[in-house]
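Field reference: sequence -> structure
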Amino acid sequence: MLRTDTPVTVYRKDYTPPPFAIDHAELVLDLDPQRTLVTSTLRFARQAGAPDAPLVLAGEELELIGVSLDGKPVADATQDAGTLTIPGLPAQGTLEITTACQPAANTTLSGLYVSNGNFFTQCEAEGFRRITYFLDRPDVMATYRVTLRADRAAYPVLLSNGNLVGQRELPDGRHEAVWEDPFRKPAYLFALVAGKLECIEERIQSASGKDKLLQVWVEARDLDKTRHAMDSLIHSIRWDERRFGLELDLDRFMIVAVGDFNMGAMENKGLNIFNTKYVLANAQTATDTDFANIEAVVGHEYFHNWTGNRVTCRDWFQLSLKEGLTVFRDQEFSADMMGSESGRAVKRIEDVRVLRQVQFPEDAGPMAHPVRPDSYEEINNFYTVTVYEKGAEVVRMYQTLLGREGFRKGMDLYFQRHDGQAVTCDDFRAAMADANGRDLTQFGLWYSQAGTPVVTARTDWNGDDGSLTLTLSQRCPKVGIETRAGTPEKQPFHIPFALGLLGADGKDLPLQLEGESTPGATTRVLDFTQAEQSFRFINLPRGASAPLPSLLRNFSAPVIVDAEYTDAQLTFQLSHDSDAFNRWEAGQRLATRALLQLVAEVQAGRELKLDPALVQAMRAVLTDDTLNPAFREQALVLPAEAYLAERMGVADPAAIHRARQFMREGLARALQADWLAAYEGNATPGAYSPDATSAARRALRNLALGYLADGGDAAMQALAEQQYQNADNMTDRFAALSALVNSFAPGREHALADFYERFEDDPLVIDKWFSLQGMQRGDVGPHAGKRTIDTVLALMEHPAFNLRNPNRARSLIFSFCSGNPAQFHAQDGSGYRFWADQVLALDAINPQVAARLARVMDRWQKYELALRDRMRAELERVAASSTLSRDVREIVGKALAA
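Structure field:
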């Protein structure tokens, strides 16, 4: 049964501490798929300032069996929709509450549920209330003792948070395990797992010499795919010890993989539950990207042990306190694992690409919200790229402003002050400020103001005295909820703006600001705090030629830079800038400029021509063997269609796709010899390894293969077919399959059928097969009339497709709706009708997944009128459903109100 109650908006300004504290919880769960009995014994105490308040506990989909206080039945407890209210409680005491839930019927995958015959939990954000009645809010922190009972034959493994303190056999073939977590935690970090699982394990010593047991639990058939996850866990533990002086605090740490999971993973204290996608990997089934993602996600969830678990959120408005901080930590970890400065630069490029393609549009749409939101209707809808990725950029700006050493000092003070507490984003900011003697009051606007600031940069060169004046101005229009009447005007952000100046020889110039006695470093971080601010650099080489500014180095703030560069200046920067990010950025600006011009030509019906200067710039990057292959691969990937749509006043997906494909095919033909040389020169002989160097070579090689196949040359498509057949790893095999499918090579259908036959028993690999077909091109050139939607609809009937499995739904439905803009935005509206059908179907099963799909339509007003009208009609059809969940209702309602 879904929640279809009237939506209630929750406001951050209304926060009040809970009237009761619960400092210890004992849970006994008699596990049965149809009816699990839960007995919770809660030690409570009334808080100061709430002498008469009743205890109101949250609960959903629960059968209440009994309530007692200090051993005596409670007669006046009242059960309402979503709550259990107990009046007249003493200052302290012990409540015992017995309830029942139905795990097998729980398709929401929130709370306690069954997947492939095993029990799992997901309690963040508000899933614990689906297990038992509780003060289910993050500022209620308790220690837990958990007793699990189940049939031994069906559920031989019984796991929960913390340390295993007891096991015994029970009558009738049942058994029991008792777990105790000595650290206070909120209910959202509770977890249990029960079922037929096996593990690999390792024992290590922490930096202080304490023994630790590490385990990765999976189904028996997947045991051979767990080594990389274990290695990633060990690397994460060692990195956190070195970088932040933080040790694993429990005697053991467990990872469990489950195939049905709404998220990527969950950081439950000592018992991390993961989507199988982020645990299982071997050379035959996982790509280099999969291996890298597993390392990053394992790191992310482990790092939460301190940034999220030991110090947690006071309320859900502070979600970025743990998520933004921990994303930053996992980004830094992954960058360090790359093993070189060039590798770190590639990681930074990857992170910014995601930010621009996904978060910047969110910042401009109806769901735009600050990193710390001021209100919500459904908290599940605020697990967003703004909270996570933009939140990470806010944390990174602290490090940019304070330096790595200063950031570490701030982290140390944060833990010293707040270990074991539920706190706020302002508490973190205060620790950073106090540890470094800095006033970061204005910096707090990054938490309270939404939108992406636009920074305009102008330069004034005086060749006679060798001075350059840089004038920066910032603007950030109201977005999302800020557009409501009465919202105060936005204030200037505190922007750490890093820059360098390139001399005529392409080398960095020492930078000396007016008022300084000597030149300093060649990269400077400016404190840009006003609506408009000027900085004068002096003692530069005199002459007619102005230095070339290298702006926002390493993407030092999540802003859009508006600066006028000529194509010649961008080409110069692409060739010479010492900042690898800005070198990549120059190439992207060149390509974006050329692509948007081609889009205009498509719309005007004019003949398309490829700019020879762009071809030469791409050739220079492709053939420069001094550059890291991973960097070259990133630099040669054209800007995404979604990114280009955001750069247009009115988006035209069909014209964008045609322009981008024209450029891609043109580059394929013009640089065929160079692509082939790159393909042949970046082979990785020997046994497969996912190490950064080998992965970089494969990335460039497979990019070259994709371009070669797109050129339409039969011999090059045959090369892709040959790689597909001979590949000894999934990276090369899947890259070849993608090249065949997207180039409409004659062997594409045979390769698709062969791929399915090879891997039909591996769900994660079949997810790739579905995803590739959902994102395949259609209606292009000689293939006009071929609609990807027809393929998607046919695949919905495939025996391997299962709408109830989030991974499978994402692999096909989300891939088409989010990853194939030209086909999704078909003029006949077929993509929109499909979207509405699937949102409604998913909402009846799993509202969280449905709400994420609903976000696809956030930017519907960005498109030309005919598409806009069709999108609105489908949004209204979804909104009109009488059984719509709160999750989807909030998304669709805000989209329509925009």
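Note: Residues 499 and 551 are 5 Å apart (CA to CA).
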